[in-house]
Amino acid sequence: VVVKDANGNTITADDPATYTAKTISNNKPVAVTDPTNGKPVSIVVPDGKVGSSVTLNIPNHDSDGYIAPILTATYGPSGVVVKDANGNTITADDPATYTAKTISNNEAVAVTDPTTGKSVSIDVPDGKVGSSVTLNIPDHNGYITPVLTATYSPNGAIVKDANNNIITVDNPATYTGNANPATNVNVKNPDGTNGEPINIPAGKYGDPDKTISLPEVSGYETPKITVTYGANGKPLIKDQDGNTISEDNSYTYTGVENKKTTINVKTPDGKTVALDIPAGRYGDNPVKISAQNISGYTAPTVIVTYGKDGKPSISNVKTPDKKLSDTDVLTYTKNPSHSSNGNHTNNESNTPSETTSPEQNVQNIATYSEKGQINVYALGSDNKMSAIGNRGLAYQSTWYSDQKVTVDGIQYYRVATNEWVKASQVYPYEDVNFDVRTYDKTAKVLYKSEDEIINNRMLAPNTSWFSDRVTYVINGEKYYRVATNEFVSAKDAYVYEPTNMVVTTNVNIPATALYSAKGELVTNRSLAADTSWLVDSITYINGVKYYRVATNEFVKASDVDNNH
Question: What is the pTM of this model?
Answer without folding.
Answer: 0.53
